[in-house]
Amino acid sequence: MADAGIAQTPKTPYYAVIFTSVRTPVDEGYAETAERMLELAAQQPGYLGVESTREGAVGITVSYWQDLPSIKAWKAVAEHTLAQRLGRERWYRAYKTRICRVEDDYAFTRPA
Amino acid sequence: MADAGIAQTPKTPYYAVIFTSVRTPVDEGYAETAERMLELAAQQPGYLGVESTREGAVGITVSYWQDLPSIKAWKAVAEHTLAQRLGRERWYRAYKTRICRVEDDYAFTRPA
Questions:
Q1: Cα–Cα dist B94/B2, whole Å
Q2: CA-nearest residue of chain B to A63?
Q3: ipTM field
Q4: pLDDT tens track for B30-40
């Protein structure tokens, strides 16, 4: 697929959570937890997809959601709350989370 | 700076453009153009900052803007329009652009 790595989202409007982070050098449990959170997020009501890249210490993960209540519910899932705490204690030097309403989108896919 | 790589944005609301892309193997002119576009974007009215990471073929670049007219004006800047065309012809297999209103944000920075 030419667009593997790009989330397949529905017609606008929908919502995005942009999570931009800077990692510490501490790896303990990070990869397992990050993978588990992607898996767990995908099981939540209102989840639409995710895109994620990391380059050196800086990472950007964008998750897409149907509405704001879905985002709020995911933030409060117990296992996710624990991961957020471990993130602050171990894995992240800094992060910023931005809750967005996607108002318009357009796409390009290369002709085969 | 613990948060180098995270854009310093003002109080919400403001706007974000999430540009998620999948690269071709063609490099011709890519790095220079990408760097020039970051430099040129930063000179536009309403520009607030940018975050960008690429991991393998997949890249996420989020630029932040004061309002929708600023985003529209940046899309239409001649040198940027040319870069968009070259992107479709040479550098990208696929991309998706999402125009978002940032409604809420919060940040964490590790105590020193």
A1: 33
A2: B18
A3: 0.96
A4: 999 999 999 99
